[in-house]
Amino acid sequence: MRTRLAIRIHALLEKHLPERRVFLKSDSDTRFIRLRSETQLVAVAGVATMVAWTIVATAILLMDSIGSGNFREQARRDQATYQERLNVLSRERDARAEEALAAQARFNAALEQISAMQSELLKSENRRRELETGIEVIQTTLRATMKQREDARALLARLEQDTGEDAAAIETAASAPVQMTFMTEALLRTAQERDAIQADAKTALDQRDELELEIQLMRERSDQIFRQLEEAMAISVEPLDKMFRQAGMPTDRIIEEVRRGYSGVGGPLTPLSFSTRGEEPSPDEIRANNLLQQMDQLNLYRIAAEKAPFANPVKAAVRHTSGYGYRRDPKTGGRRMHNGSDFAGAHGTDIFATADGVVTHAGWQSGFGRLVKIKHAFGIETLYAHNTSIRVKVGQRVSRGDHIADMGSTGRSTGTHLHYEVHVNGTPVNPMTYIKAAKNVF
């Protein structure tokens, strides 16, 4: 059966591909190569396969070339869009920085104005005390003068009465000129003293009116100063209070903790106080005490702001590549918690402390590379990882804005960047909460 099938196939091939011979002739001999139908079929199949493969490969290369051109064009468009977005973000960042500088300037100007107003308020208070003392002296003198005037009037009335009752005796005593002269001189002196007392009383009353007017003007001036100081304090304290609350920091506890840490007092200066001589304090004294309390609160806010990480760890142009929260791990591709914020920039970019504190770690730590840890007040700790070099030592006290390290890619890192973390009582929190809360204050 197989033989018959083979014979039929061979006959069919012979019909379309008859047997051929290729002669090879030399000088002395002639040979030939016989190409059977099956051999020709294999050769044709091989050639067809090569041609088909060449066509497919050529088509693939053309499609790949066209596709790669489209991909490059798309990549260029994406890069241009991304660059434009970076430029927009850079302009927004510069605008926010200018606003922060302007806010700082306004804040400093408000502090200077508050200081000048406080000095003027103290001068006004001293002047008011002097005027009150002068009024008391004038009123005492006026009361004594009026008493003397009343005594003189009573004496004059008695003398006039005595003169009326003894008129006859005076007429009969015409021969006694010495007594009459004495009586006339006494009456004259009494009249002169009465006129002098009346003039002094009028002068004292005029002085009292002038002093009352001056006191009224001083009170109006003091009220204006109080209003300006109260407005300045409200403008200065409100942004700081809002900043702490947006950062999730309880202001009452923060202020109390700062007050306990800055509770020392001493000489030679003494605290400002208003004596009330055992009486109820006046409205001006109550307002002045309230202003002094607000000034103290503003100063405590300023101290607390220096101790909390409200500043940005990088001042150069950087890109915020990753935020706080769960993300895809760049090494393993799995989902993993990211406890900080990443800022990508040029190699060696300066890194700054975001608050006052003490360096607790400055060296290598697995995964973080070269790491700096700073312990701050209020149970806060900041971490600066993947640095190429470290500029501080353990135990060193640093201030906000001090240069502590240079940006690098040490440890578990895919490129040059800063990994920045904030811990509160040992628990990681979002660092951008503090930076965003202070963007319109500092």
UniProtKB/TrEMBL annotation:
InterPro entries: Cell_wall_metabolism_enzyme, DUF5930, Dup_hybrid_motif, M23ase_b-sheet_dom. Residues 1-319 form the DUF5930 domain. Residues 194-228 form a coiled coil. Gene3D superfamilies: Glucose Permease (Domain IIA). Residues 336-431 form the M23ase beta-sheet core domain. Keywords: Coiled coil, Membrane, Signal, Transmembrane, Transmembrane helix. The chain crosses the membrane at residues 41-63. PANTHER family: L-ALA--D-GLU ENDOPEPTIDASE, PEPTIDASE-RELATED. This is M23 family peptidase.
